[in-house]
Fold this protein.
Amino acid sequence: MRRIYEPLLKEHFSHYEQMMFLVGPRQVGKTTLAQLLQTLFQETAYFNWDVIKDRQKILAGQTFIEDYFPLQRLREQKPLIVFDELHKYREWKNYLKGFYDLYKDDYSILVTGSARLDIFQSGGDSLMGRYFQCRVHPISIRECIDAKRNTYRDLSTEIVQPNRIDDDNFNSLYQYGGFPKPFLERNQRFFHRWQSLRQRQLLTEDIKSLTHLQEISQLEILAELLKHQVGQMINRSNLSNKVQVSVQTVARWIATLERFYYCFLITPWSKNISRSLIKEPKIYLWDWSVLEDEGKRFENFIASHLLKSVHHWNDLGLGNYTLHYLRNKDKKEVDFLITKNQKPWILVEAKSSNNQKVSPALEYFQSETQAPYAFQVVLNMDYVDKDCFQFHVPYIVPARTFLSQLI
Protein backbone atom coordinates (compact mmCIF):
# COMPACT_ATOMS: atom_id res chain seq x y z
CA MET A 1 0.00 0.00 0.00
CA ARG A 2 1.06 3.60 -0.52
CA ARG A 3 2.72 5.23 2.47
CA ILE A 4 2.46 8.81 3.65
CA TYR A 5 6.26 9.17 3.51
CA GLU A 6 6.54 8.93 -0.28
CA PRO A 7 5.89 12.64 -1.04
CA LEU A 8 8.27 13.72 1.74
CA LEU A 9 11.09 11.65 0.23
CA LYS A 10 10.34 12.87 -3.30
CA GLU A 11 10.31 16.49 -2.16
CA HIS A 12 13.56 16.09 -0.24
CA PHE A 13 15.58 14.69 -3.12
CA SER A 14 14.10 17.22 -5.53
CA HIS A 15 15.20 20.22 -3.46
CA TYR A 16 17.96 19.35 -0.99
CA GLU A 17 21.47 17.92 -1.11
CA GLN A 18 21.54 16.53 2.46
CA MET A 19 21.44 12.79 3.06
CA MET A 20 18.10 11.36 4.14
CA PHE A 21 18.06 8.99 7.12
CA LEU A 22 15.04 6.68 6.89
CA VAL A 23 14.63 5.23 10.38
CA GLY A 24 12.07 3.21 12.30
CA PRO A 25 11.27 -0.20 13.77
CA ARG A 26 12.14 -3.49 12.13
CA GLN A 27 9.47 -4.59 9.61
CA VAL A 28 7.80 -1.14 9.43
CA GLY A 29 8.35 -0.79 5.66
CA LYS A 30 11.61 1.14 5.24
CA THR A 31 13.05 -1.21 2.61
CA THR A 32 9.83 -1.05 0.59
CA LEU A 33 9.98 2.75 0.67
CA ALA A 34 13.63 2.70 -0.42
CA GLN A 35 12.78 0.38 -3.33
CA LEU A 36 9.89 2.60 -4.36
CA LEU A 37 12.15 5.65 -4.29
CA GLN A 38 14.63 3.85 -6.55
CA THR A 39 11.97 3.63 -9.28
CA LEU A 40 11.98 7.44 -9.47
CA PHE A 41 15.67 7.60 -10.38
CA GLN A 42 17.31 6.75 -13.69
CA GLU A 43 20.40 5.36 -11.95
CA THR A 44 20.44 3.73 -8.50
CA ALA A 45 22.60 1.42 -6.41
CA TYR A 46 21.62 -0.41 -3.19
CA PHE A 47 24.19 -1.61 -0.64
CA ASN A 48 23.17 -3.69 2.39
CA TRP A 49 25.75 -4.06 5.17
CA ASP A 50 24.32 -7.50 5.96
CA VAL A 51 25.22 -8.75 2.46
CA ILE A 52 28.88 -9.82 2.38
CA LYS A 53 29.63 -8.67 -1.16
CA ASP A 54 28.10 -5.25 -0.42
CA ARG A 55 30.05 -5.02 2.83
CA GLN A 56 33.30 -5.70 0.95
CA LYS A 57 32.57 -2.88 -1.47
CA ILE A 58 31.80 -0.47 1.37
CA LEU A 59 34.99 -1.42 3.22
CA ALA A 60 37.05 -0.82 0.10
CA GLY A 61 36.56 2.92 0.69
CA GLN A 62 34.11 5.60 -0.34
CA THR A 63 35.50 5.99 -3.84
CA PHE A 64 34.22 2.52 -4.85
CA ILE A 65 31.02 4.23 -5.99
CA GLU A 66 32.81 5.87 -8.91
CA ASP A 67 33.06 2.42 -10.54
CA TYR A 68 29.26 2.39 -10.66
CA PHE A 69 28.61 5.99 -11.61
CA PRO A 70 31.64 7.81 -13.05
CA LEU A 71 31.73 11.46 -12.02
CA GLN A 72 32.60 13.24 -15.25
CA ARG A 73 29.42 12.36 -17.10
CA LEU A 74 26.54 14.64 -18.05
CA ARG A 75 23.32 13.56 -16.32
CA GLU A 76 19.79 14.91 -16.04
CA GLN A 77 19.49 13.56 -12.50
CA LYS A 78 21.84 12.56 -9.71
CA PRO A 79 22.08 8.79 -9.15
CA LEU A 80 20.53 7.53 -5.90
CA ILE A 81 22.82 5.63 -3.50
CA VAL A 82 21.11 3.58 -0.77
CA PHE A 83 22.97 2.30 2.30
CA ASP A 84 20.94 -0.17 4.38
CA GLU A 85 21.86 -1.16 7.97
CA LEU A 86 25.15 0.75 7.70
CA HIS A 87 24.94 1.68 11.39
CA LYS A 88 26.16 -1.87 12.14
CA TYR A 89 29.57 -0.76 10.85
CA ARG A 90 31.56 0.61 13.78
CA GLU A 91 32.90 3.56 11.78
CA TRP A 92 29.62 4.34 10.02
CA LYS A 93 29.53 8.00 11.03
CA ASN A 94 33.04 8.71 9.73
CA TYR A 95 32.25 6.74 6.60
CA LEU A 96 29.10 8.68 5.79
CA LYS A 97 30.70 12.00 6.66
CA GLY A 98 33.50 11.30 4.19
CA PHE A 99 31.13 9.95 1.54
CA TYR A 100 28.85 12.96 1.80
CA ASP A 101 31.69 15.49 1.73
CA LEU A 102 33.12 13.81 -1.38
CA TYR A 103 29.92 13.28 -3.33
CA LYS A 104 27.12 15.57 -2.10
CA ASP A 105 27.13 17.37 -5.47
CA ASP A 106 27.16 14.13 -7.47
CA TYR A 107 24.84 11.64 -5.76
CA SER A 108 21.61 11.58 -3.73
CA ILE A 109 22.14 9.53 -0.56
CA LEU A 110 19.54 7.55 1.38
CA VAL A 111 20.47 5.71 4.59
CA THR A 112 18.08 3.24 6.22
CA GLY A 113 18.24 1.30 9.46
CA SER A 114 16.10 -0.80 11.80
CA ALA A 115 17.77 0.71 14.85
CA ARG A 116 18.25 4.37 15.59
CA LEU A 117 21.14 5.83 13.67
CA ASP A 118 22.28 7.76 16.74
CA ILE A 119 22.96 4.69 18.92
CA PHE A 120 26.72 4.80 18.70
CA GLN A 121 28.36 7.97 19.94
CA SER A 122 31.98 6.86 20.21
CA GLY A 123 34.27 7.49 17.30
CA GLY A 124 33.33 9.78 14.45
CA ASP A 125 32.58 13.41 13.93
CA SER A 126 29.08 14.82 14.09
CA LEU A 127 26.93 14.55 10.98
CA MET A 128 25.07 17.70 11.94
CA GLY A 129 23.97 19.65 8.90
CA ARG A 130 24.66 16.74 6.57
CA TYR A 131 21.34 14.89 6.87
CA PHE A 132 17.62 15.14 7.47
CA GLN A 133 15.55 12.31 8.87
CA CYS A 134 12.25 10.66 8.10
CA ARG A 135 10.87 8.56 10.97
CA VAL A 136 8.72 5.75 9.63
CA HIS A 137 5.85 4.65 11.88
CA PRO A 138 3.30 1.84 11.62
CA ILE A 139 0.26 2.43 9.41
CA SER A 140 -2.27 4.88 10.84
CA ILE A 141 -5.97 5.56 10.23
CA ARG A 142 -5.25 8.45 7.87
CA GLU A 143 -2.82 6.33 5.86
CA CYS A 144 -5.51 3.67 5.42
CA ILE A 145 -7.92 6.31 4.16
CA ASP A 146 -5.47 7.93 1.75
CA ALA A 147 -4.25 4.56 0.44
CA LYS A 148 -7.80 3.51 -0.39
CA ARG A 149 -8.49 6.85 -2.11
CA ASN A 150 -5.06 6.68 -3.81
CA THR A 151 -4.24 10.21 -2.72
CA TYR A 152 -1.57 12.00 -0.68
CA ARG A 153 -2.23 14.64 1.91
CA ASP A 154 -0.95 18.22 1.64
CA LEU A 155 2.56 18.40 3.10
CA SER A 156 2.08 22.02 4.19
CA THR A 157 -0.75 21.34 6.68
CA GLU A 158 -0.96 19.63 10.05
CA ILE A 159 -4.71 18.96 10.30
CA VAL A 160 -6.89 17.80 7.41
CA GLN A 161 -10.63 17.42 6.96
CA PRO A 162 -12.12 14.21 8.38
CA ASN A 163 -12.82 11.18 6.24
CA ARG A 164 -14.38 7.84 7.03
CA ILE A 165 -12.30 4.70 7.45
CA ASP A 166 -14.27 1.54 6.69
CA ASP A 167 -14.95 -0.79 9.61
CA ASP A 168 -12.87 -3.64 8.19
CA ASN A 169 -9.73 -1.50 7.96
CA PHE A 170 -10.30 0.08 11.36
CA ASN A 171 -10.88 -3.24 13.10
CA SER A 172 -7.88 -4.86 11.40
CA LEU A 173 -5.64 -1.93 12.31
CA TYR A 174 -6.76 -2.05 15.93
CA GLN A 175 -6.46 -5.85 16.19
CA TYR A 176 -3.33 -6.62 14.16
CA GLY A 177 -1.42 -3.35 14.58
CA GLY A 178 0.02 -1.02 11.99
CA PHE A 179 3.02 -3.03 10.81
CA PRO A 180 2.33 -3.68 7.13
CA LYS A 181 2.62 -7.48 6.91
CA PRO A 182 0.22 -8.53 9.69
CA PHE A 183 -2.15 -5.67 8.88
CA LEU A 184 -2.40 -6.65 5.22
CA GLU A 185 -2.42 -10.41 5.90
CA ARG A 186 -5.22 -10.19 8.51
CA ASN A 187 -4.74 -13.76 9.67
CA GLN A 188 -4.53 -14.69 13.34
CA ARG A 189 -2.07 -17.57 12.88
CA PHE A 190 0.22 -15.47 10.69
CA PHE A 191 -0.03 -12.65 13.23
CA HIS A 192 1.17 -14.83 16.13
CA ARG A 193 4.03 -16.33 14.11
CA TRP A 194 5.10 -12.90 12.86
CA GLN A 195 5.01 -11.40 16.37
CA SER A 196 7.12 -14.22 17.82
CA LEU A 197 9.72 -13.98 15.05
CA ARG A 198 9.94 -10.19 15.22
CA GLN A 199 10.45 -10.21 18.99
CA ARG A 200 13.18 -12.83 18.70
CA GLN A 201 14.94 -10.96 15.92
CA LEU A 202 14.74 -7.68 17.83
CA LEU A 203 16.24 -9.11 21.02
CA THR A 204 18.76 -11.64 19.71
CA GLU A 205 19.78 -10.24 16.34
CA ASP A 206 19.52 -6.48 16.77
CA ILE A 207 20.04 -5.70 20.43
CA LYS A 208 22.43 -8.50 21.32
CA SER A 209 24.61 -8.08 18.24
CA LEU A 210 24.75 -4.28 18.31
CA THR A 211 25.03 -3.63 22.04
CA HIS A 212 26.77 -6.88 23.11
CA LEU A 213 24.25 -7.17 25.92
CA GLN A 214 24.41 -10.74 27.22
CA GLU A 215 21.46 -10.93 29.64
CA ILE A 216 18.92 -11.38 26.84
CA SER A 217 16.66 -13.68 28.87
CA GLN A 218 16.30 -11.02 31.59
CA LEU A 219 15.81 -8.30 28.97
CA GLU A 220 13.02 -10.42 27.49
CA ILE A 221 11.38 -10.57 30.93
CA LEU A 222 11.62 -6.78 31.19
CA ALA A 223 10.10 -6.35 27.73
CA GLU A 224 7.17 -8.54 28.80
CA LEU A 225 6.71 -6.64 32.07
CA LEU A 226 6.62 -3.32 30.21
CA LYS A 227 3.42 -4.45 28.48
CA HIS A 228 1.72 -4.19 31.86
CA GLN A 229 3.25 -0.75 32.49
CA VAL A 230 1.72 0.85 29.38
CA GLY A 231 0.08 4.18 30.19
CA GLN A 232 1.65 4.26 33.64
CA MET A 233 4.61 6.10 35.09
CA ILE A 234 7.66 3.85 35.07
CA ASN A 235 8.42 2.25 38.43
CA ARG A 236 12.05 1.26 37.95
CA SER A 237 12.42 0.01 41.52
CA ASN A 238 9.51 -2.39 41.14
CA LEU A 239 10.81 -3.60 37.79
CA SER A 240 14.32 -4.13 39.19
CA ASN A 241 12.92 -6.43 41.90
CA LYS A 242 11.01 -8.49 39.35
CA VAL A 243 13.85 -8.76 36.84
CA GLN A 244 16.46 -9.11 39.64
CA VAL A 245 18.85 -6.47 38.36
CA SER A 246 19.74 -3.03 39.68
CA VAL A 247 17.56 0.04 39.16
CA GLN A 248 20.37 1.53 37.06
CA THR A 249 20.39 -1.57 34.85
CA VAL A 250 16.62 -1.37 34.36
CA ALA A 251 16.96 2.29 33.34
CA ARG A 252 19.72 1.39 30.89
CA TRP A 253 17.77 -1.51 29.40
CA ILE A 254 14.62 0.58 28.96
CA ALA A 255 16.72 3.18 27.14
CA THR A 256 18.06 0.39 24.92
CA LEU A 257 14.56 -0.89 24.14
CA GLU A 258 13.54 2.67 23.34
CA ARG A 259 16.47 3.17 20.96
CA PHE A 260 15.52 -0.02 19.12
CA TYR A 261 11.89 1.08 18.74
CA TYR A 262 10.32 -1.40 21.13
CA CYS A 263 8.86 1.30 23.35
CA PHE A 264 8.71 5.08 23.67
CA LEU A 265 8.49 7.42 26.65
CA ILE A 266 6.29 10.46 27.20
CA THR A 267 7.46 13.03 29.73
CA PRO A 268 5.22 15.23 31.91
CA TRP A 269 4.58 18.87 30.99
CA SER A 270 4.86 21.19 33.96
CA LYS A 271 5.32 24.69 32.53
CA ASN A 272 2.61 27.05 33.81
CA ILE A 273 0.82 24.20 35.61
CA SER A 274 0.04 24.96 39.25
CA ARG A 275 0.91 22.15 41.68
CA SER A 276 2.42 20.15 38.82
CA LEU A 277 4.38 17.00 39.53
CA ILE A 278 7.76 16.41 37.94
CA LYS A 279 7.39 12.67 37.75
CA GLU A 280 8.69 9.74 35.80
CA PRO A 281 7.77 9.42 32.13
CA LYS A 282 4.94 7.16 31.00
CA ILE A 283 5.72 4.28 28.69
CA TYR A 284 4.06 2.97 25.52
CA LEU A 285 4.91 0.35 22.89
CA TRP A 286 5.47 0.84 19.17
CA ASP A 287 3.15 -2.12 18.55
CA TRP A 288 -0.18 -1.72 20.32
CA SER A 289 -1.46 -5.07 19.03
CA VAL A 290 0.48 -7.05 21.67
CA LEU A 291 -1.62 -5.53 24.49
CA GLU A 292 -4.55 -7.63 25.70
CA ASP A 293 -6.07 -5.11 28.13
CA GLU A 294 -8.64 -3.05 26.21
CA GLY A 295 -7.97 0.21 28.04
CA LYS A 296 -4.19 -0.05 27.66
CA ARG A 297 -4.44 -1.02 23.99
CA PHE A 298 -6.67 1.92 23.11
CA GLU A 299 -4.55 4.42 25.05
CA ASN A 300 -1.44 3.06 23.29
CA PHE A 301 -3.30 3.21 19.95
CA ILE A 302 -3.95 6.92 20.52
CA ALA A 303 -0.39 7.53 21.80
CA SER A 304 1.08 5.91 18.68
CA HIS A 305 -1.03 8.06 16.36
CA LEU A 306 -0.09 11.23 18.25
CA LEU A 307 3.61 10.41 18.28
CA LYS A 308 3.51 9.65 14.56
CA SER A 309 1.90 13.02 13.89
CA VAL A 310 4.41 14.87 16.09
CA HIS A 311 7.38 13.17 14.40
CA HIS A 312 6.03 13.73 10.90
CA TRP A 313 5.21 17.39 11.47
CA ASN A 314 8.74 17.88 12.81
CA ASP A 315 10.31 15.95 9.91
CA LEU A 316 8.33 18.08 7.44
CA GLY A 317 9.68 21.24 9.06
CA LEU A 318 6.25 22.62 9.99
CA GLY A 319 7.41 23.67 13.48
CA ASN A 320 8.61 22.26 16.78
CA TYR A 321 6.17 19.72 18.22
CA THR A 322 6.43 17.57 21.35
CA LEU A 323 4.22 15.00 23.09
CA HIS A 324 3.64 15.00 26.87
CA TYR A 325 1.15 14.11 29.57
CA LEU A 326 -0.27 16.23 32.41
CA ARG A 327 -0.60 15.43 36.11
CA ASN A 328 -0.67 17.54 39.28
CA LYS A 329 -0.49 16.98 43.04
CA ASP A 330 -4.28 16.79 43.24
CA LYS A 331 -4.09 13.70 40.99
CA LYS A 332 -5.79 15.44 38.10
CA GLU A 333 -4.42 13.93 34.90
CA VAL A 334 -4.84 14.15 31.14
CA ASP A 335 -3.35 11.43 28.98
CA PHE A 336 -1.69 13.55 26.30
CA LEU A 337 -0.66 17.08 25.42
CA ILE A 338 0.81 18.10 22.08
CA THR A 339 2.79 21.33 22.19
CA LYS A 340 3.51 23.48 19.16
CA ASN A 341 6.55 25.75 19.29
CA GLN A 342 6.77 25.34 23.10
CA LYS A 343 3.10 26.23 23.65
CA PRO A 344 0.26 23.84 24.65
CA TRP A 345 -1.81 23.08 21.57
CA ILE A 346 -3.94 19.91 21.75
CA LEU A 347 -5.12 18.06 24.87
CA VAL A 348 -6.29 14.47 24.43
CA GLU A 349 -7.97 12.11 26.89
CA ALA A 350 -8.42 8.53 25.65
CA LYS A 351 -11.57 6.63 26.65
CA SER A 352 -12.42 3.16 25.39
CA SER A 353 -16.12 3.70 26.18
CA ASN A 354 -18.38 6.75 26.06
CA ASN A 355 -19.64 7.86 29.49
CA GLN A 356 -21.45 10.87 27.97
CA LYS A 357 -19.53 13.33 30.14
CA VAL A 358 -16.36 15.32 29.54
CA SER A 359 -13.57 14.59 32.01
CA PRO A 360 -13.29 17.39 34.61
CA ALA A 361 -9.49 17.10 34.35
CA LEU A 362 -9.68 17.87 30.64
CA GLU A 363 -11.66 21.03 31.34
CA TYR A 364 -9.32 21.99 34.20
CA PHE A 365 -6.11 21.59 32.22
CA GLN A 366 -7.44 23.41 29.18
CA SER A 367 -8.13 26.35 31.48
CA GLU A 368 -4.65 26.02 33.01
CA THR A 369 -2.71 25.63 29.77
CA GLN A 370 -4.91 27.74 27.46
CA ALA A 371 -4.50 25.03 24.83
CA PRO A 372 -6.80 25.86 21.88
CA TYR A 373 -8.10 22.29 21.55
CA ALA A 374 -9.19 19.64 24.07
CA PHE A 375 -10.69 16.30 23.06
CA GLN A 376 -12.03 13.27 24.85
CA VAL A 377 -11.40 10.63 22.18
CA VAL A 378 -13.67 7.58 22.39
CA LEU A 379 -13.19 4.14 20.84
CA ASN A 380 -16.77 2.88 20.68
CA MET A 381 -18.31 5.92 18.97
CA ASP A 382 -19.39 5.83 15.34
CA TYR A 383 -17.71 8.11 12.82
CA VAL A 384 -19.14 11.63 12.59
CA ASP A 385 -18.43 13.58 9.40
CA LYS A 386 -17.58 16.83 11.15
CA ASP A 387 -14.35 18.74 11.77
CA CYS A 388 -13.27 18.18 15.39
CA PHE A 389 -11.02 21.23 15.26
CA GLN A 390 -13.84 23.73 14.84
CA PHE A 391 -14.43 23.54 18.59
CA HIS A 392 -12.36 25.37 21.20
CA VAL A 393 -13.98 23.90 24.30
CA PRO A 394 -13.56 20.29 25.48
CA TYR A 395 -15.47 17.96 23.18
CA ILE A 396 -16.23 14.23 23.11
CA VAL A 397 -15.24 12.94 19.65
CA PRO A 398 -15.01 9.51 17.96
CA ALA A 399 -11.53 8.08 17.49
CA ARG A 400 -12.48 7.33 13.88
CA THR A 401 -13.09 11.03 13.23
CA PHE A 402 -10.31 12.59 15.30
CA LEU A 403 -7.52 10.31 14.09
CA SER A 404 -8.60 10.70 10.46
CA GLN A 405 -7.61 14.36 10.74
CA LEU A 406 -4.01 13.61 11.80
CA ILE A 407 -1.11 11.92 9.99
Remarks:
- Residues 6-135 form a domain with the Rossmann fold fold (CATH 3.40.50.300).
